[in-house]
Amino acid sequence: MAISEMATEPLVGPSGLPRLLARPAVHGGWVDLGAHRSTMPAPPTPGARPDERLMLEVEASALRGCGGAAFPTAVKLRAVAAGRRGRPVVVVNGSEGEPASRKDRLLLVTRPHLVLDGALVAAAAVGAGQIVIGIDEGEADAHASVRRALQERRTTPLLAATRIVSIPARYVAGEERSLVRLIDRGPAIPSAAPPRPFERGVGGRPTLVQNVETLAHLAQIAAFGAAWFRGVGTEHEPGTRLVTVSGAVANPGVYEMASGTPVTTLLSAVGGTTQNFSAVLVGGYFGSWVSAAHAAAGRLSDADLRPLGAALGSGVVAFLPAGVCGVVESARVARWFARQTADQCGPCVHGLAAIGGGLAQLARREADTTVTDRLLRWAGDVEGRGACRLPDGAVRFVRTALTVFGDEVRRHRAGTCSATVHEPVLPLGDDRGPT
Amino acid sequence: MSAPSRLTVDPIACDGHGLCADLLPERIRLDDWGFPIIHSGDIGPALEVHARRAVSACPVLALKLARPSRPA
Question: Fewest CB atoms within 10 A around its CB: which of A105, A108, B23, B71?
Answer without folding.
Answer: B71
